[in-house]
Every structure is written in structure tokens, then in C-alpha cells.
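ligand=protoporphyrin IX containing FE
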Amino acid sequence: LNNRYTSDIRYISRPDGGHWLWGHELEPFSRLPGETYAKWLENHGSLVRISGAFGHDDILVVADTGVLAHILTKRPYAYPKSSMFRSFFLRISGRGLVWAEGEDHRRMRSTLNPVFSASEVRNMYEDVKLCSDRMTLLLTKYLNNNGGDAAIQVPEWTTKVALDIIGRVGFGHDFDFGKSAEAKQISTAWTKMLKLNMSRNGAMAPIVLRNFPIIDSLPISALKSQGTINRIITGLAEKLFVKETLDPESIKGRDLLSTLLRENRSGRTAISKEELLDQISTFVTAGHETTAATLNLILLTLAQNPDIQDKMRRELVDFGTEPTYDDFLAKLPYLDAVVKEGLRMFPAGPSTERIAAEDDALPLRKPIQTPDGRTLTSIRIKRGQVIIIPTMSINRDNAVWGDGWTFRPERWLSPDQLPAHGETTQGWSQTLTFLQGPRMCIGFRLVILELKVVLSSLIKTFVLHDTGAEVEPVIAVNLQARIVGEEGVRLPLRFTFAEPELRVQ
Ligand code: HEM
């Protein structure tokens, strides 16, 4: 009752229907990712109220840019992640940056921001290129052994290259393109988790856990197996600590852990060993499957759109030489446009959730009308209010982007084809793919570099063809691809060589 009369939630439009037990919460999983929220936003405006499961208070779905700026940029610590999400991350990667809140987070972030700066990411270029070239070479061999024409399960290759990159730039470790024992263990643990998450039970799990957090502390094997990744990464990264104890001067690597160890030794930072290990584990968890999944969906789109693929290849071939880091940054506009469009269309985190830690008033960019004719420029909410940010639907909002559901890299080539800045969020390239504000993805510069280097290497060397398999995006921890009716992450594409003179020898 209290809630009803001191919050303005009741003035916000709500979709019809809703299941007696699940409310509206399962509906986003009954359509393709992003579609349900897009429909709600189209029909009800940039704030929507949906019924929670198990009689939970109504949940707020937010696309209003004023509210997003308030929650994500101005008051991020007043809107922590749900305890369900935090304990999931605690299990897979410990007390790192994704898990931390409030003062803890502020401290960690200010220590870690410098190691992800533009100049540090420039130093990662060689590692990224090395891993990418290794993948292209292995694919070339595979294709040569198969008469120059083969169907490739793309995720099997992209997860390996993404793990290789984060291993090298994270803690100077070579996962050996999936061949090392640890790479295999990580892959098995992820495959298991993703399969589980793709099922209907997987969709229900976070909703159940939010309502019954006690389940989270039960010794359920599926929950316990999530600790595997943390254990493996910690075990591997610990080797650097041993090396440092034996000979501090031997820590010369440009990787994140070596840099942080040197910072610690110089007295500029004082991060405990345990925290350092958790941060590295966090980077691997947050950074490998997300990048691989984005690559998968961009590669699928390129296979489905040969004209875009050709245009990309032409730009790379015309460029002539092997692009340097600076060339990747500034001299390949079409590649840049494809990467921006890919990240806009396929945000690895298609939605995220926050909980109000205190009563607050959310400032609206677009005021709403109450049924009794008043105009509200802000809405009061109560502590505990659950807020969903439907990233993918916001990135694709037709009202803002015009043809938001169409993959059209050209929009990035002429600024007059982009939405006015006031219309969009303040995130990277007017999207919410990396969120915005002090909790924005710390690895975004690395991601852009990875995508550019890997895509250019693949597209320059191979032609990707659609196999006709019915592939669709699906939410499983993050945005993934699967074959309709089949289990697990699957994306077959046919590879042939590009012009023979482009072939890697
Ligand atoms: C395509 C790839 C990626 C995408 C789309 C992505 C997206 C995101 C998003 C949306 C968040 C915010 C989540 C939330 O608060 O609800 C985030 C946070 C984070 N990401 Fe990424 N990410 C990607 C790759 C990476 C990589 C490669 C790394 C590390 C090397 C990384 C490290 C992190 C960390 C540590 C956070 C937590 C930041 C904080 O809370 O301060 N991510 N990422």
C-alpha cells in the first residue's frame, strides 16, 4: 500500500496480459532477443511497467535517455546490480570489477582505468594481431585440406581466438588456440553453462533467483560448476606471482597483470593478490565469450549480405599494405562502420538490470501524462524498484534510428544519417552496447581493436557464404547464435578462399 501511494509507477503504461505466475517476465524469451521490449517501447513509450513474477512489484523497463543518464551516469552507485546477478558473477570470477559496488567499485575502477587507456590498448595490438593471424593460418590449412571449400562451425574458432587474446593481454598466457588443457576445461565449463542457459529453465532461473535468493546458496551442481573458470584462471595467473617472488625484475610483460604487478611494486597501487587474481578472472569472463559472440553474429550477417562483405574486402585490398594500429583506428572507414553497426545491432548484453538502493525521483527526458491530466517531468520510485534496461531494443529503436533493425553500415559514413545526439544515449557511438557512465565496459577499446583485426584478417582471406541453416540469435548469458531446434551455440558458415592472390601462404 505504502508503495502504491508514494511512487509514481502506477502512472506508467503497462502491456495487457501477463501470466498469473510469471507476470510479463518470461515474454521477452518467447520471441527473438530484443523483439518483446521493442514492441513494448513502441506501444507504450520510453517507460514501460511490466508485472513481476510471483506477485513481485511491477518492474520498470527504461529507454528514456534522461532516466538512463540518471541511473547509469549520475547516480550509478544508487542503482546496484541485483544480488542474483552479483552472486552469479562472484561464483564465476570472484570479487572483481563486475561484482563490486559503491566505494569498492570506485576504488577498483580508478586503479584499473589506466591499464585500459588508449595508449595501453595500443600496446595490446601485437598480441591481438598474433592471435588473429594464427586463427587465419589454421583456417587456411583446414580449408586447403578440404579442397578450399568447407563448412566451418564459426563459434568453435571465435571462442578460441577470443580466449587466446584475453589470455595474452590479460596475463601473458598462451591458451594455444584451444589446445591447452586449461583452454579445454574453460570451453567445457562455458559450453555446459550456455546450454543450460539456452533452455527455458535457463530463462526462468534468474527470475526465480531474484524472488527466492535462498536457492542461490544451495549446493546445486549447476551453480557450483560455475566456479571452474575462476579456479582455472586463478591457477594460471598465480604462476606470475611465483615468478615475481623469485625475481621481481622478470615481470616485463605488457599484459594487464604484469602492468598491475609493476604498479604495485612501484607503490603507485596497492592491490592485494587475491583481488588481482579476481580482476584477471573477471576480464577473462567478461571479455572472451562476449567478443566471440559479437564476432559470430557479425560474420553471419556478412555471409547473409555478400554486397557488404565485398565492399569491406575491397576496402582492405585497396588499402594495399598490412594496416598498422593507427590505420585500423582511422584509415579504414568501411571496416569501422561495419564494426559500429555490428556492435549496435548485436550488443553482447541484450539487457541489464538494476535495483534502486533508495527512494528516488527519476528525471524524464520525455514527460508523461497522468490519467487525471497532469504532466510528470520526473517519477518517484521506491527503494527496491527493479529496473530493466533493454539495451538491444534501445540500440535498434526505429523511432530513433529509422531503420533500426536493418544492418546498414553506411549510416555511420554520413553523420546526417545518424540520429541527433539528444535523441540517443550518451554511450559509445550513441549506443548502449557498452552501457554508459562510470560502469561502462572497461574493455571497450580492446573489443573494437579485436573486432577490427579479426574481421579484416578473415574477410581479406576468405569469402563467407550462408549455408542455408536456420540460425537465430538467442539469449544465453549473453547474445548467442544457434540453429533453430538444436541445442547449444551453433553457427555453420561455408568458407572459400578470396581471390587466390589474397590467400595467406
Ligand atoms: C563485445 C564485447 C563486449 C561487450 C559488448 C561488453 C559489454 C559490457 C557491458 C554492457 C558492461 C556493463 C554491464 C552492466 O553493468 O550491466 C560491461 C562491463 C564490463 N566489461 Fe565488457 N563487454 C565486452 C568485452 C569486454 C572485454 C574484452 C573486457 C575485458 C578485457 C570487458 C570487461 C568488462 C568489465 C571488467 C566490466 C565491468 C565494468 C564495471 O562495472 O566497472 N568487457 N561490458
